[in-house]
Amino acid sequence: MRKKKGISEPKTVDEQIRQGTSAAAVVNSPVFQEAFEILEERYISNWISSSVEDKDKREVQFMSLRVLSEVRLELESMINSGKLAARHNQ
After folding, report:
1. Any residues with CB less than 8 A from the CB of 21 and at least 6 apart, and which?
2. Of the candidates 5, 57, 60, 68, which lies 20 to 30 Å from 51 by C-alpha distance?
3. What is d(CA 73, CA 78) in angstroms, rounded to the nearest whole number?
4. What does the pLDDT look like over 26-80, one tens digit per residue?
5. What confidence tens digit (pLDDT) does each residue in 3-26 have?
6. Largest CA distance in the chain
7. Phi/psi of residue 10, each to 5°?
8. Around 20, how many Cα atoms within 13 Å sit in the side-chain half-sphere?
9. What is the pTM of this model?
């Protein structure tokens, strides 16, 4: 994993293409898709089944769903950036 210190240097076109290809492989992986669905269903189920008094549990489930969504959006952003970089590289 790449650590960010201050302002990071922009990725080269080749790096964007490789990153997009790798992100697509992850997103399209049946194992990733199944894990994502399991977690999403678990968080929603826990959220819905929480008692009225258990505000903290609902907040944790809600935040878990938000993070899961952010992971998906970030991967999709990487895929799209890679596709754009590949088009401009032709």
Report:
1. 82
2. 68
3. 9
4. 999 999 999 999 999 999 999 999 999 999 999 999 999 999 999 999 999 999 9
5. 555 567 888 999 999 999 999 999
6. 58
7. -65, 150
8. 17
9. 0.81
